[in-house]
Amino acid sequence: MGPGTAGTAGGGAAGGPAQGAGGLAGLMSGRSTFGGNKRRRTTSTGHAMSEAQEGKIKLAFFVAIVGVVLTVLGVGTEFWVELAPPKSFYNNQTCLTAHYGLWKGCTKTLWVADIDPERESCGPAELPGESNCTYFKFFTTGENAVMFQKTTQKNLNVAAAMLAMFSLFLMVMGAICITMSLSKEILFFLKPASVCFILSGVLVLLSLMVFHQSVLAFLASDHMVPLHHELSWSVSCIGCAGAVLIVGGVLFLLLALPYSPWQKCLPHKDSGS
Predict the structure, then answer these.
(1) Intra-chain end-to-end CA distance of the chain, in Å
(2) pLDDT category, 169, cuts 50, 70, 90?
(3) 69, 89 contact by CB (below 8 A)
(4) Main-chain dihedrals φ then ψ at residue 215, nearest 5 degrees
(5) Preceding amide of 226 cis, omega within 30
(6) Rounded Cα–Cα distance for residues 262 and 270 (Å)
(7) Helix (H) or strand (E) holding 224
(8) What is the DSSP letter of 36?
(9) pLDDT digits (tens, 9 = 90+) for 28-45
(10) Is-contact 54 88, C-beta < 8 A?
(11) pLDDT tens digits for 211-236?
(12) Cα–Cα distance, 229 to 152 (Å, whole number)
């Protein structure tokens, strides 16, 4: 009775530390899983998003954000096109120049003495002078704007503005998809994000083309006043934004593929072969 009890007690005592050590090891492993090493949730396809994939997604997102910033900068400014008559059209002291964008147009009175003597037309619009800016009435009363006795084509101008606004809406939707993909660690959201950014880039370039057609129609509306026109820096921002957005969308599409396109096109040869 005594030895058996002692043996049982001894066995329990011996097993206790062993079980305690196993529980402690499991607890430590659990801490390492939830603490030091970040635990990755599995995606809907059963594959976890690695840190390398997350870094590539953030890099592609940065490229897309650059396109969004350039688009907002171009759409919000009125330096899409500059219009300038000859310097000697009004008088020998001042001349009038104009520039406009999607939403408003500005006329500016410049001193002829400040203009480059080798330049035949008035401008550029960056020179100091008295400026007067007004918003277009395309979206309120439907009236056309008149500058230098020429009339704008409101249908083309409104179409260019609507394309630009719809592209901004697609950019917001794409940004939401990427945010969901990074927060939930689900690669599926990369596909709609790529579609949104590619379409937004195409719409931005299409808006630029429609605006250029509206400028040509504006110049052809009246030939009484000769005008020199040139696309300004806002158009450069829009063109670069369209290209950057398309590149960002293509990067998201490549990241959404279940395999690496480089490994598919350039497979690694085994050492034995």
Answers:
(1) 73
(2) very high
(3) no
(4) -65, -45
(5) no
(6) 16
(7) none
(8) I
(9) 344 333 334 444 444 444
(10) no
(11) 999 999 998 887 787 888 888 899 99
(12) 14
